[in-house]
Amino acid sequence: MSNKSTFVLVVAAVIGLVAWNSFYIVEQTERAVLLQFGKVEQSNVQPGLHVKIPYINQVRKFDARLLTLDAPTQRFLTLEKKAVMVDAFAKWRVADADHYYTATSGIKQVADERLARRLESGLRDQFGKRTLHEVVSGQRDELMAEITASLNVMARKELGIEVIDVRVKSIDLPKEVNLSVFERMSSERAREARDHRAKGQELAEGIRADADRQRRVLLAEAYREAEEIRGEGDAKATAVYAKAYGMDQEFYAFHRSLMAYRESFADKSDIMVLSPDNEFFKYMEQAKP
Predict the structure, then answer these.
(1) Distance (Å, rounded) from C-alpha 103 to C-alpha 113?
(2) 188 near 108, Cβ under 8 Å?
(3) In angstroms, what CA-CA distances link 11 with 1, 22, 57?
(4) pLDDT tens readout for residues 265-287
(5) Which three-class secondary structure state does DSSP give residue 193?
(6) H or E element: which one contains 49?
(7) Last residue of one domain, picked from the residues 135, 152, 173
(8) Residue 260: which residues within 8 A CB-CB, separation 6 or more?
(9) At what angle do helices 97-104 and 108-128 cross, to 10 degrees?
C-alpha cells in the first residue's frame, strides 16, 4: 500500500470519527443541555437527533422521568410538643435542564440532598403548627398538599426541578414513649369498656323490669278472661243440667247414682261400710230380680 493510500485512509477515518461525534440523540425520557467549553450554549435541548461541534461542544443528558426522594425517618415535635417519627418521600422531575445543570452540575445525588433538607424543614414547620390528632388523621391531606406546594416553589427557583407530590408514609411515636402511650390507651379503653358494660347492664335491667311488668299484666288479664269464660261455662252447664233435671228427674237421679257408684268403686280395694237399706243402694235394690 502506497503512502498516498495510507494518507487517504487516515483522512477518511478522521472525517468519519468527526462525523460520528458531530451527531447526538436525546431520548424522549431525557433532558439535555449543549455545552461549549463548559458553558451552557443551548438549554433544554428537545428530544431527537441533533448536531454539535466535536471536541468543542459537550452534551449533558439528565433523566426526565419521575424520580423518587426517599427521605430518612425524622423526629419532629407537634404543636403540643409531642415527638413523632415521620417517614416521608417526594416525587420530582427535571423541569428546567439549564437551571438544573447550573444548580447541581447535573448530579442527582446533589439534587436529592438539597431537596431532602428543604423537605425536612417543611415537614418540621407543618408538624409544629398542628396537634398530634391533626397530623395523624384530621389534617394529614392538607399538610401534604401545603408541603408539596411550598417545596415545588423552592425547587423550581433553586434547583430547576418540579416537585409533583410529597407523601407521609408513616407517623409513629418514638420507641421510648410507645409503652407509656400503649398503657394509657389500654386504661382508657378499659374505662370505656366498663362504662359501656354499666350502661348495658342498666339498660338490660330496665328491659327485664318492663318485660316482667308486661308478663304480670298479661297473666292477670289472661286469668281474668279465663275466670270469666269458666264462669260463663259453669253457668251454661248449670242451666243445661237444670233443664235436663227438670225434663226427667228420675233419669237424672239414676244417672247421678251411676256416676257415684263408678267413683266409689273405681278401685277393687275400696271398702265402703253402709247399711244395706241405705239410700245409696236404692237402684241396686231395684235391680234385683
Answers:
(1) 12
(2) no
(3) 15, 16, 22
(4) 666 666 666 666 666 666 555 55
(5) helix
(6) strand 48-51
(7) 173
(8) 280
(9) 90
Q: Are residues 125 and 194 in the same domain?
A: no
Burial of residue 137, with CB atoms counted within 10 A of its CB: 0-12 exposed, 13-18 middle, 19 or more buried: exposed
Check if the beta carbon of residue 50 is closer than 8 Å to that of residue 26.
Answer: yes
- In this structure, what C-alpha cell is assigned to residue 128? 409544629
Domain boundary among 146, 173, 200: 173
Question: What are 180-227's pLDDT values in tens digits?
Answer: 667 777 888 888 898 999 999 989 998 998 999 999 999 999 999 998
Query: CA torsion sign, 31 to 34 to 40 to 41?
Result: negative
* Interatomic CA distance for residues 140 and 131, integer angstroms: 11
57: β partners: 36
How far apart (Å, rounded) are the C-alpha atoms in residues 203 and 265? 61
What the block records as the C-alpha cell of 274 is: 253402709
Cross-strand bridge partners of residue 166 = 90
Q: Torsion angle of alpha carbons 235, 237, 241, 244, nearest 10°?
A: 110
Per-residue CA distances from 94 to 31, 38, 133, 149 (Å): 8, 20, 35, 16
Amino acid occupying residue 70: D
- The CA distance from 174 to 132, in Å, is 13
* Torsion sign over Cα 253, 254, 259, 260: positive
**Total domain count for the chain?**
4
Which cell is 280 given?
245409696
- Fill in the amino acid letter for 184: R
CA 10/CA 16 separation, integer angstroms:
10
pLDDT, tens digit, 9 for 90 and up, residues 136-152? 776 778 888 888 999 99
List the domain range (segments joined by +) for residue 190. Answer: 179-247
> In sequence order, what are the beta bridge partners of 34?
42, 59
First to last CA, the chain: 173
